[in-house]
Amino acid sequence: MNPTRTSTWDHEKFKAVSEQWGDFCKVSRQLAEKDGRVRVTPYKNYRMIAERWVKAILNAYENGQVKEELEKAAEEIDHVSRSALSVHAFGTQRKVV
Fold first, then answer.
1. What is the pLDDT of residues 51-95, one digit of tens each?
2. pLDDT for res 56
3. What are the backbone dihedrals phi and psi of residue 42, each rounded to the nearest 5 degrees, phi first?
4. Would you list the domain boundaries of the chain?
5. Contact indicator for 96, 85 with CB cutoff of 8 Å
6. Whole-angstrom Cα distance, residue 74 to residue 79?
7. Rounded to two decimals, what is the model's pTM?
8. Following DSSP, what letter does each residue of the chain receive, concatenated?
9. How far, in Å, CA of 27 to CA of 60, rounded?
10. Are 69 and 59 contacting, i.e. CB atoms less than 8 angstroms apart?
11. Are the C-beta atoms of residues 9 and 3 closer than 8 Å to each other?
């Protein structure tokens, strides 16, 4: 997971740790700061899905179980995405009329 702040990328401790990653930091910063774009496809549950993904990332930072948290979120997001006629609130469901 990439740092979200320039101050972290520029911090000496982060530079020391990430030095062993080869061009990872150089390429990541190029993508984040210059080349990358976030384009959102209109989707009725986009905010809910984005919030669930953020929750997974925060949980992973907190408990160190990155793979488990992201897989759990992906499974829940897949379930929401497959259901075109329902609005889900991750654990609840109601029919859209």
1. 999 999 999 989 999 999 999 999 999 888 887 545 555 555 555
2. 95
3. -55, 130
4. 6-35, 46-95
5. yes
6. 9
7. 0.52
8. ---SSHHHHH-HHHHHHHGGGTTHHHHHHHIIIII----PPP-TTHHHHHHHHHHHHHHHHHHS-HHHHHHHHHHHHHHHHH-TTEEE-SS-EEE--
9. 24
10. yes
11. yes
Percent of the chain predicted with pLDDT > 90:
39
Six-digit token string for 86: 């329902």
* Cα 94 to the center of its chain, rounded Å: 26
Amino acid identity at 92:
T
Q: Assign residue 41 a region: left if phi > 0, alpha if psi is -120 to 50, beta otherwise?
A: beta
Amino acid at 52: R
